Amino acid sequence: MSKTISFNELRRLKDSLPDGATARIADELNTTVQTVRNYFGGVNYQFGKNVGMHIEPGPDGGIVVLDDTTIYDLAVKILEEQNA
Predict the structure, then answer these.
(1) What is the pLDDT, as a whole number, of residue 9?
(2) Which residues 6+ apart lie within 8 Å of 51 measured at CB?
(3) Could you tell me whether strands 3-6 and 53-56 are parallel, antiparallel, or unpaired per DSSP bridges?
(4) What angle, rounded to 10 degrees, do the helices at 70-83 and 21-29 form?
(5) Among 22, 39, 45, 52, which one is most buried in terms of CB atoms within 10 A?
(6) How would DSSP label each residue in the chain?
(7) Rg of the chain, C-alpha, whole Å
(8) Which pLDDT tens digit goes with each residue over 24-33?
């Protein structure tokens, strides 16, 4: 299922994650930390995979369409655990 959000909203989510969350997401999804970073706007494809993120210019940093919300959903879950 895809999700459309602003780029700045995606970056705010990433910036809100506690230390070690990127590694935790990578471990739980059996992927590399760099792939998770690429999902949140990184561009290092030598050590990480393309994650199906499409950015179009627009307000609030542009519009981001996430083809797969698995990483996004796990990041939200980690934030909910932290705030509980």
Answers:
(1) 94
(2) 35, 38, 39, 67, 68, 71
(3) unpaired
(4) 130
(5) 39
(6) --EEEEHHHHHHHHHHSPTTHHHHHHHHHTS-HHHHHHHTT---TTTS----EEEE--STT-EEEES--HHHHHHHHHHHHHH-
(7) 12
(8) 999 999 999 9
Assess contact for 7 and 60: CB atoms under 8 A: yes
Distance CA 10, CA 40 (A): 6
pLDDT digits (tens, 9 = 90+) for 28-75: 999 999 989 888 887 665 655 566 677 788 888 889 989 899 999 999
Residue with tokens 């990480």: 48
